[in-house]
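Sample intake sheet
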Amino acid sequence: MFGVKLSVLFFAVFSLSKCSGRFVYSCKYPPSQWCDSEDIAAECGVLEQCMKFNVTTPNANKVNVSLYYESLCPGCRNFLVGQLVPTLIMLSDIMNVDLVPYGNAQEKEDQGKYTFICQHGEDECLGNMIETCLLNNLGMEAIPVIFCMESGVDVLKSAQPCLGIYNPEITWDSVMKCVKGDQGNKLMHENAVKTNALKPPHQYVPWITINGEHSDDLQDKAMSSLFSLVCSLYKGEKPGACAQGLKKKPSRYCMK
């Protein structure tokens, strides 16, 4: 069911228009409920999308895709918005996604607390922390919110309205409590540990691992067409979507 909802949420982000920086949103149901019934789907104008993506695939070992990234890195944003999330929408039954917002940041410890210095400044540290807290709070349901943030003109200004659209039951205050408190500090430290433990060590972002492995070949294939790579690596019966393709030219990296 998550794959169906994610597909419709992705459709919604392009269906909603912006007026004076605000989203126009006429449906009385939140996007997370659009596929709960045919009546709701019809009322919100997404009946076709709910039916289209409501397809299951035989179980097999899924392809695990991990993205080590920074919230304000242009190359990271391009890959997440243009490759990772569209591929997840089409192939959610055969792939898992793990997001690790940290990238080329650095941390310093002082009496059990950590301070972070980010490649693109304090705003990026805040963006990384917001997305980390969203992932901790919502799990996979955070991905549409992060997609919405990263596809916006301003990642930070998009955060609160994106949360309101895709997960209105979660308050912004609860997210910021994590961001400003001990929990967020601990979670970001865990991201730092996870990033610094990469083998081989990351040299830039976006840094992509496939089933826990990184190589120049896997990175190039993922950046060129993650969709094709996931389809080629999946060992079970391939979904019909694999007969199609999603391609995008490699985006520029954020070097250390």
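Comment: Confidence is low (pLDDT under 50) at residues 14-25, 52-59. The two ends are 39 Å apart (CA to CA).
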